[in-house]
Write a structure and sequence with these properties.
Length: about 425
């Protein structure tokens, strides 16, 4: 009995091996095309004698994907392969053979024409320009890559790829802002920073993102010296901080950041409620810091204004800092005695002082009593200079000074200033 069973099994195995290794006529007339206008699947068709079929995708230079479909005998000689089965940016052929998943392949492969799965062109250099509550976005698209299978049955016009605007805002996931467009310009309604904008480019094979724009809000601050000498250069230091949106996984969050190279405009105001006028310009450095230099010209309010900045990849909203008051005081350019500070008894000594701003007013000549400064005499300041002559009647060492009161310069106050002690030695 065992011998009979062994012989029967041997005959069965031999028959199976003969079926799997025999060469059936391969299918003919393999053709491909799109299943419908949605381009969601590739329809492959062929001719054979109602045999079972094995369908695969063969890479041409590209790696072959692991797609296999078996169709039993008697089924129509056509099959729709979803586009998701084709890796993007490759060249392929569809192979149709006779065979089953159990018995194996029994014919040579019949191949379709070669076709490419080139993805869309990635948009770049996107720029956003505010227009009221809306934003006008423009972007660039590179020229198509060389087509290594021109005129293949699955080619569609390059200008049919779509660009879908996508945006992320604080606390929200990415969301589509509308249907796709084939243009390179779109008006996005009711979009205000901070946001993260990008374009999803799609074609019949795949989608990719590009054309990102970081829409940021700004906050600027500046600090001016509280008191500075008139007519000399002073430095105002400030910083611009940005708020941006960062998106990861399914949610976007707001973050603080800085950016170098942003333009900043220094503005000055001569009186409260008066107009702001430009007093200087600069750019932000690393960390958002900036230094602006200006010549002190009377007591003024200063602020920094950050204009709207829009260039490829990001947009920064304008902002103005709070005002910072800097007072000016009289500048002393010269103070002393004509002919030197060592004189003989009964000499006529001339004390002189030169100040800025050039003004016509009264200076007060003072003497140090040993306990306090006592006023001696007023003397006029003409064209920024005052002088006072007196006789040195007794020997000794004495100290004098000029007290220059405050004045007005172009409508702004300049605070008064006392010269350092002017020592006089009389022999």
């Amino acid at each position: 009995m065992r011998r009979v069973v062994a012989v029967a099994l041997a005959l069965l195995v031999g028959a199976s091996a003969l079926t799997a290794c025999s060469s059936d006529p391969m299918p003919t007339g393999v053709s491909i095309g799109w299943s419908d206008k949605s381009h969601q699947a590739v329809q492959v068709s062929w001719k054979d004698s109602d045999a079972p079929n094995r369908i695969t995708i063969q890479g041409v230079v590209s790696t072959s994907p692991s797609y296999v479909k078996y169709l039993p005998a008697g089924e129509p000689n056509t099959w729709a392969i979803p586009t998701s089965a084709f890796p993007p940016d490759g060249n392929y052929k569809i192979a149709v053979e006779i065979g089953t998943s159990i018995g194996g392949v029994s014919s040579k492969a019949a191949l379709s024409p070669m076709f490419d799965t080139d993805g869309p062109q990635r948009p770049s250099d996107a720029v956003a320009v505010p227009s009221g509550k809306d934003v006008v976005v423009t972007w660039k698209v590179p020229p198509p890559e060389p087509d290594f299978s021109p005129g293949d049955p699955l080619d569609v016009p390059h200008d049919t790829q779509l660009y879908v605007p996508v945006v992320g805002t604080p606390g929200q996931p990415f969301r589509d802002l509308g249907t796709g467009t084939t243009a390179t310009r779109q008006v996005v309604k009711n979009l205000r920073p901070p946001y993260f904008f990008q374009l999803r480019a799609t074609n019949e094979w795949t989608s990719l993102t590009g054309g990102a724009i970081a829409g940021r809000t700004s906050y600027s601050s500046i600090s001016a010296p509280s008191l500075w000498t008139f007519g000399t250069q002073m430095t105002l230091r400030g910083r611009t901080v940005l708020q941006q949106v960062s998106c990861a996984d399914s949610r976007c969050v707001q973050q603080q950041t800085t950016a170098p190279g942003l333009p900043v405009v220094l503005q000055a105001q001569s009186r409260p409620g008066g107009p702001w006028v430009e007093a200087g310009r600069g750019v932000t450095q690393l960390g958002g810091w900036f230094d602006l230099r200006v010549t002190a010209a009377g007591s003024r309010n200063y602020r920094v204004y950050l204009p709207l900045t829009s260039r490829a990849g990001f947009l920064v909203t304008p902002s103005a800092s709070a005002a910072s008051l800097s007072r000016s005081r009289v500048q002393l350019t010269n103070a002393g005695y004509a002919g030197g500070n060592v004189r003989n008894r009964n000499d006529v000594v001339t004390a002189v002082v030169t100040v800025r701003p050039i003004a016509n007013q009264q200076a007060i000549f003072q003497f140090w009593t040993g306990k306090a400064w006592a006023s001696v005499k007023q003397t006029p300041i003409k064209n920024g200079q005052a002088s006072l002559a007196f006789k040195a009647t007794r020997p000794g060492t004495f100290a004098y000074r000029f007290l220059v009161p405050g004045s007005q310069y172009q409508g702004t106050p300049v605070y008064g200033y006392a010269t350092p002690s002017m020592v006089l030695r009389v022999r």
